[in-house]
C-alpha cells in the first residue's frame, strides 16, 4: 500500500479517514470516511459549509486532531511516513519543517509579546534547519517575496503594529520558513476585506508556485478556491460530494449540491423606483461624529425611503458601523441632525422616547453575542412585545408564535436556549426580536458576514420577503458587494468616514464607476480560475502607465 | 422538584457526597432541640470527660455535653454565616452591577469608596465597629456583611464588565430597558457561575471570620454555642491529649468541603452548557 504510493509523485494519502468528536458522553462522527490525496506541488481545495469537516480534514493531514476529537479510522501516509502510528515526537519533527499550517485568524495566532521576525525564526531554529541569523536573513527575503512593505524592517515590529493583511502574509512567510512540502491554509482570507484579500491571495499563489509547495486550501468560498486550487473536493456533513479538477468542476458541476454552491448569490431584488413626493423615513444631515480626537464620520448626508433598502458599503474602518451607532444614538454625533419621519431625534438614545426607540431596531453581525444565552427564545422574542406593546399572557404567546412563523422556524423552538440553535437560526431569532417591536426601520449591521453562503442567502431572501410584506425599511451595512447587489435599492459607498459615492443601485453598480467603487467591485472574486491573474495583470498595466 | 431530583441522581459521586453533608448539617440545625440529648447550656458532667463515657463525644471545659453543643452550634453558626453571606452578596452584587452597567462617575465613586474600605484590615475594622456598636447578633451580621461585600463588589463588577459590552445588553439598552431589568435579566444570569463559586468560598470565609471574632470576644456571645468559640474555649484540652477542641474544627472543615463539592459541580455544569 505504502510502496505503491511512493513510486509516484504522491505526497499525502489519506484513505477512509474517519474523525470523531466528543459531545457530552458519546463520540460523534465528524468525518465519515473520506479519501484525500495530494501530489507534490499540487494545490487541493477543500470546500463546504461550516460543519462539513473541512478544517478537521486539513488538520488531520498533519496527523493532528483538535482537543476533544480523535482520528478513529483510516490510513494517513505522508511521504512514506505513517502519521497515525507516529509518536508525538516524530510528528513534532514533521510539523513546521515538512508540513506547515496557516490559520484563519493571524491576529490570534501570533504571540503579541514578540516581534514578527523572532516568531518567524523560531521554527527554523527549533528544527535545526538554520541558525538564528540565517533565519532572519531568510525571513527578510521571504517578506520581500510576499510583497510586504519595508521587508528589511517590518520583521522588527510587533503583531499589533501591522495590518491584518500584512499579518496574514507574515504568517504565510512563517509557514514557508522551513520550505515545507505541504502547507495547510485554513480559511486564510475569510476575515479580510476584499481589497486586502486580493493581496494575500496573490502572495500565496505566487509563493506556492515558486517553491513548488503542495497545499491544502480550506475555505467556504468557491470563488476564492477557484483562484487557488488545481483540484477541488466538495464536502458536506463529513462526506465527499464531488471531486474534480478546478476548471472542470466550475465548468460542469456534476452534483446538485455543487450546483447549489455555484449558483449561490444569484438572488436579486427589483430596484424600487423613486416616487415623487415620497417623504424619507430617515434623513441624516451633515452628521459628524468623533471617537475622542478621531473624526469617525465626516459630513454624512443620506435619506432612506420607506419600504426600501439602503446599503452602506465600505472596508473595515470606513465608518459604516459608526454611522449605525450615530443614528441609533449609541454614539451621540457632535454636529448635524438625524430626522426620523419628520421629527429630529435627540443625539443620545437615552433622551429619546420609547416610541422612537421602538421604531428603529437593530440586527447585529454576531447572533451569538446578540442573544442572551440564558434566556429562552420565547422570552427573547416576547420581551419587546410586553415592553413596547404591553402584551402579556396568551396574547403575547400567540404573537410570538406568529413571529416564529414569519421567520420560518417551528413554534416549539420558543422553549429552547440560543445555544441549541444553529448560526442561521439564531440570526432569524434576532430578526424576529427586531420585528416584534413593529419598527419602520431596521439597521442591519453585517448580518450575514458570520454565516455560510447558502445560509446567508436564505437570510437575505427572508429579509426581502419581510420587507415586501411589512413595508419596513432597511439600512444595510456590509462589506460584501454580493450582498449589496442582492438586496439594495440604493447604495452609499464609504471610505475613511466619508461618503464617496451614493445613488440608486443601477447607477452605482454600472459604468462609469467612481474610482473607489471600481476598486471594490473588481476585487470581488469571480468563479473563474483565471480571474485573479487577469485582474493582477490588468492592474499592473494600469499602474505601469 | 422532580427535575432537581433527577439532576442529583445523575450528579458525580463527589457532588452527591457534598449534598449529603449539607443535608445532614441542615437536619442537625433545624431539628437541634429534637436530636440533642441535653439542652444547649446545661452542665451535665465533669470537665473534659472522655468520649463514650455516657456522653457520645465527651464534655467541654465546664462539663456541657459536646455533642449537644455541636448540634446547637450548627444551628447558630450556619444560620448566622448564611444570612451574613446572603446579605453581603446582595449588597456587593447590587453595587458591582450598578457600577458596571452605569459606568462613568457612578462607577468611579462606588469603586473608590470600596477601595478605601478595603484598605483597612478587615478584622481590625470589624473589631473597631463592633466595640463601638456592641455585639448583638443583628449588628454582627450587618457589620460583617458590609465589610465582606467589598470583596463581592470587586468580583461582580469585574464579571459584569465582560457582560455589559455584549451586543444583547446593547439591544436591551436601545430598547429602553431600565437599570433593574439590565441588572436582573441581562447581567445576573450570565454571571451566575463565578458568583455561585464565590458564594461557596465566601460562606466558608464568613464562617471562619465569625469564629475569629468569637475568639476575640466580639463574636457570638457565650453561652450560645458556636463552633469557632468552641475551638477556642477547649483549646487548653490539647495539652492533655484530649481531642475535644478538634471536633468543632472538624465540623467546620467537613461543611466547608461539602459546600465546595457542590459548588464545583454546579460550576462544571454551567460551564458545560456554555460550551455546547
Pick out its properties.
heterodimer; A: about 550 residues; alpha/beta; Rossmann fold; 2 domains; 6-stranded mixed sheet; 22 helices; about 25% strand; disordered N terminus; B: about 280 residues; mainly alpha; MetI-like fold
Q: What does this molecule look like?
A:
The complex is a heterodimer of chains A (545) and B (276). With 545 residues, chain A is of the alpha/beta class. Chain A folds into 2 domains: 2-263, 3-Layer(aba) Sandwich (Rossmann fold), CATH 3.40.50.300; 282-510, Rossmann fold. Chain A is 39% helix and 25% strand. Chain A has 22 helices and 20 strands. In chain A, α8 links the parallel β7 (182-186) and β8. Chain B has helices at residues 2-10, 13-30, 32-35, 66-102, 104-119, 122-133, 137-164, 167-175, 179-215, 227-233, 246-275. In chain B, α2 (13-30) crosses α4, α4 (66-102) runs antiparallel to α5 and α6 crosses α7. The longest helix of chain B is centred in the N-terminal third of the chain and has 37 residues, at 66-102. Classes of the chains: A alpha/beta (545), B mainly alpha (276).
Q: CATH homologous superfamily of the largest domain in chain A?
A: P-loop containing nucleotide triphosphate hydrolases
Overall geometric form of chain B: globular
CATH topology of chain B: MetI-like fold
Gross geometry of chain A: globular
Protein chains sharing the most extensive interface: A-B, 27 and 19 residues
The first-level CATH class of the largest domain in chain A is given as: Alpha Beta
Integer average pLDDT of chain A: 86
Say how many strands of chain B there are.
0
The CATH superfamily of chain B turns out to be MetI-like
| Second-tier CATH architecture of chain B | Orthogonal Bundle
Number of domains of chain A: 2
Instruction: Give average pLDDT of chain B, whole number.
Output: 84
The structural class of chain A is alpha/beta
Amino acid at each position: 500500500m505504502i510502496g505503491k504510493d511512493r513510486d509516484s509523485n504522491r505526497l499525502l494519502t489519506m484513505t477512509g479517514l474517519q474523525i470523531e468528536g466528543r459531545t457530552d458522553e458519546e463520540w460523534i462522527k465528524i468525518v465519515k470516511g473520506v479519501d484525500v490525496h495530494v501530489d507534490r506541488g499540487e494545490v487541493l481545495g477543500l470546500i463546504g459549509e461550516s460543519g462539513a469537516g473541512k478544517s478537521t480534514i486539513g488538520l488531520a493531514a498533519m496527523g493532528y486532531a483538535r482537543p476533544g476529537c480523535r482520528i478513529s479510522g483510516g490510513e494517513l501516509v505522508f511521504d512514506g511516513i505513517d502519521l497515525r502510528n507516529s509518536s508525538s515526537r516524530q510528528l513534532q519533527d514533521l510539523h513546521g519543517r515538512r508540513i506547515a499550517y496557516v490559520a484563519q485568524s493571524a491576529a490570534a495566532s501570533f504571540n503579541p509579546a514578540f516581534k514578527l521576525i523572532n516568531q518567524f525564526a523560531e521554527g527554523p531554529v527549533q528544527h535545526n534547519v538554520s541558525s538564528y541569523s540565517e533565519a532572519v536573513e531568510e525571513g527578510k527575503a521571504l517578506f520581500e517575496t510576499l510583497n510586504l512593505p519595508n521587508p528589511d524592517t517590518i520583521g522588527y515590529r510587533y503583531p499589533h503594529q501591522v495590518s491584518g493583511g500584512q499579518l496574514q502574509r507574515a504568517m504565510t512567510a512563517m509557514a514557508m520558513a522551513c520550505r515545507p512540502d505541504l502547507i495547510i491554509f485554513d480559511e486564510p482570507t475569510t476575515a479580510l476585506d476584499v481589497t486586502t484579500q486580493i493581496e494575500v491571495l496573490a502572495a500565496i499563489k505566487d509563493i506556492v508556485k515558486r517553491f513548488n509547495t503542495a497545499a491544502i486550501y480550506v475555505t467556504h468560498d468557491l470563488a476564492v478556491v477557484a483562484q487557488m486550487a488545481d483540484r477541488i473536493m466538495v464536502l458536506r456533513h463529513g462526506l465527499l460530494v464531488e471531486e474534480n479538477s478546478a476548471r472542470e468542476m466550475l465548468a460542469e458541476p456534476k452534483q446538485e449540491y455543487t450546483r447549489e454552491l455555484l449558483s449561490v448569490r444569484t438572488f436579486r431584488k427589483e430596484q424600487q423606483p423613486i416616487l415623487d413626493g415620497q417623504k424619507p423615513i430617515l434623513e441624516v444631515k451633515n452628521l459628524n461624529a468623533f471617537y475622542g480626537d478621531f473624526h469617525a464620520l465626516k459630513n454624512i448626508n443620506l435619506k432612506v425611503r420607506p419600504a426600501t433598502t439602503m446599503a452602506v458599503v465600505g472596508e473595515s474602518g470606513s465608518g459604516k458601523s459608526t454611522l449605525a451607532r450615530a443614528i441609533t444614538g449609541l454614539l451621540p454625533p457632535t454636529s448635524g441632525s438625524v430626522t426620523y419621519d419628520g421629527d429630529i431625534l435627540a443625539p443620545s438614545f437615552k433622551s429619546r422616547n420609547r416610541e422612537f426607540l421602538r421604531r428603529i431596531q437593530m440586527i447585529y453581525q454576531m447572533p451569538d453575542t446578540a442573544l442572551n444565552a440564558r434566556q429562552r427564545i420565547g422570552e427573547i422574542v416576547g420581551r419587546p412585545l410586553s415592553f413596547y406593546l404591553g402584551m402579556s399572557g396568551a396574547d403575547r404567546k400567540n404573537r410570538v408564535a406568529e413571529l416564529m412563523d414569519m421567520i420560518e422556524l417551528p413554534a416549539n423552538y420558543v422553549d429552547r436556549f440560543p445555544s441549541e440553535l444553529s448560526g442561521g437560526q439564531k440570526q432569524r431569532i434576532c430578526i424576529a426580536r427586531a420585528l416584534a417591536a413593529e419598527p419602520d426601520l431596521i439597521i442591519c449591521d453585517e448580518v450575514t458576514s458570520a454565516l455560510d453562503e447558502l445560509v446567508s442567502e436564505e437570510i437575505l431572501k427572508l429579509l426581502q420577503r419581510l420587507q415586501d410584506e411589512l413595508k419596513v425599511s432597511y439600512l444595510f451595512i456590509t462589506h460584501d458587494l454580493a450582498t449589496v447587489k442582492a438586496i439594495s435599492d440604493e447604495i452609499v459607498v464609504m471610505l475613511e468616514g466619508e461618503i464617496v459615492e451614493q445613488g440608486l443601485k443601477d447607477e452605482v453598480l454600472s459604468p462609469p464607476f467612481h474610482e473607489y467603487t471600481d476598486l471594490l467591485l473588481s476585487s470581488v472574486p469571480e468563479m473563474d480560475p483565471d480571474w485573479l491573474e487577469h485582474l493582477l495583470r490588468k492592474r499592473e498595466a494600469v499602474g505601469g502607465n | 422538584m422532580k427535575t432537581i431530583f433527577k439532576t442529583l441522581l445523575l450528579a458525580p459521586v463527589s457532588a452527591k457526597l457534598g449534598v449529603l453533608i449539607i443535608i445532614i448539617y441542615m437536619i442537625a440545625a433545624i431539628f437541634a432541640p429534637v436530636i440533642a440529648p441535653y439542652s444547649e447550656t446545661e452542665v451535665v458532667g465533669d470537665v473534659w470527660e472522655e468520649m463514650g463515657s455516657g456522653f457520645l463525644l465527651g464534655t467541654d471545659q465546664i462539663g456541657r455535653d459536646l455533642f449537644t453543643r455541636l448540634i446547637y452550634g450548627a444551628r447558630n453558626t450556619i444560620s448566622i454565616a448564611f444570612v451574613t453571606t446572603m446579605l453581603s452578596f446582595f449588597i456587593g452584587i447590587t453595587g458591582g452591577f450598578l457600577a458596571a452597567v452605569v459606568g462613568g462617575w457612578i462607577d468611579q465613586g462606588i469603586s473608590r469608596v470600596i477601595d478605601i474600605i478595603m484598605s483597612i484590615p478587615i478584622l481590625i475594622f470589624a473589631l473597631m465597629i463592633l466595640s463601638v456598636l456592641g455585639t448583638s447578633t443583628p449588628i454582627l451580621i450587618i457589620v460583617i456583611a458590609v465589610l465582606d461585600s467589598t470583596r463581592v463588589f470587586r468580583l461582580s463588577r469585574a464579571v459584569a464588565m465582560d457582560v455589559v459590552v455584549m451586543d444583547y445588553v446593547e439591544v436591551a439598552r436601545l430598547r429602553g430597558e431600565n437599570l433593574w431589568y439590565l441588572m436582573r435579566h441581562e447581567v445576573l444570569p450570565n454571571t451566575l457561575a463565578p458568583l455561585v463559586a464565590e458564594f461557596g468560598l465566601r460562606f466558608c470565609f464568613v464562617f471562619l471570620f465569625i469564629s475569629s471574632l468569637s475568639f476575640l470576644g466580639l463574636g457570638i456571645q457565650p453561652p450560645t454555642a458556636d463552633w469557632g468559640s468552641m475551638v477556642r474555649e477547649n483549646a487548653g484540652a490539647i495539652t492533655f491529649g484530649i481531642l475535644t477542641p478538634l471536633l468543632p474544627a472538624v465540623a467546620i472543615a467537613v461543611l466547608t468541603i461539602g459546600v465546595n463539592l457542590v459548588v464545583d459541580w454546579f460550576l462544571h455544569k454551567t460551564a458545560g452548557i456554555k460550551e455546547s
